[in-house]
Fold:
Amino acid sequence: MAQPSKPIYKIGLYTGIAIVVANMVGTGVFTSLGFQVLGIQSGFALLMLWVVGGLIALCGALSYGELAAALPRSGGEYHYLSYIYHPVVGFLSGWVSATVGFAAPTALAAIALGKYAASVWPSLNAQVLSVLVVLTLTIIHATSSQAGSRFQVVVTLIKVLLLVLFIGAGLLTATPQPLSFVPQTADWHQVISPAFAVSLVYVSYAYSGWNAAVYVAGEVEQPQRNLPRILFIGTALVLLLYVGLNFVFLYSTPLAKLGGQVEVGYLAANQIFGSAIGRLMGAVIAVLLISTVSSMIFAGPRIVQVMGEDLPVLRSLAVVSKRGIPVRAMIMQSALTLLFTIRSTFEHVLLYAGFVLSLFTFLTVLGLFVLRWREPELPRPYRAWAYPLTPLLFLGLSGWTLIFILRDKPMESLYGLLTVLIGAGAYGVSRRMSAV
Structure:
């Protein structure tokens, strides 16, 4: 098995931040507001959704920062849960992430990219474009980590600049809508309503990816120092972008036009700039989604690689190239992504996966308390800011969301738990094969 003694290229601070930002800023922020306004009509409550969702992600990032600095190895939740609880718990987390957690969202972003591009250039075949983007980015990242990292920084920088320009243009030129963002008594009632909690599920999906850097922790330069900074800076930057972007959407576009619509960014651009320029929003969002697809193709295979290093039955997927890239794991993830992209029936997979993925992040942050109690002497180059408040806040808000998913989406939740049971069976088989 070809294993380089020393990685040729290490991920720096800016590349790490780019990976976090690119993973987070995807389809969710451009599509979910239209469904939120169906149940919530308060401008303040709608913005609070994005503030609370960002607070959850930020508290999670601060908590993960301590774990990442204390246990600096690639693999994310798979590595942490295996160490803190039991290898079977880590395997189940890795199983869900490897089979659904990265491949399906990557496909969703690729499909959205194709559709937005086709809205600008109708002659394009959206599905063919989606497939070509996935294949091209896979080749880039499988060839060179350095080239892939530089590409990631460039496209993410373009993404952030475009969003900032859009927010600035909206604030300067949009016609204000008769919607108040100053809280009234009735607004607070909406904040604690079931509709708010259900909408928070979709907002949490939009913020998913704040933990992306921990999946490549073993390839980060000075991980004890850089990982906490990467997680915090990347998440805080996205929080500001999301709140600003959704404020512009609400400030510029009537709620009646947004209700039930998916192409929120396109509608807001039409409202601000007119139909001629607004039509180009499809091209802009397509450019932004290239960064999202790229970052997921880069980060996801590292989970499978680490699982392969620990489990003999998956050992072939741990093989890395002479440049230290898990090419086989990357090919496997991209193959799943292409399958979802071509079939276009994976949206239901995302719905049920949301519950189980949130469950494992909940267990990971809870593990912060377990690890401090069990190994108080473990070197911790970084400790979670405002501990225990930040992890407790994450657990409280995430737990509240999980309860509402289980209550309002019972079938999707049960399918998610069934996925875990299948993973448990796969773990049992792998252990028996290893013992033979």
Notes: The two ends are 21 Å apart (CA to CA). The chain has one domain: 13-427. The chain has 21 helices and no strands.
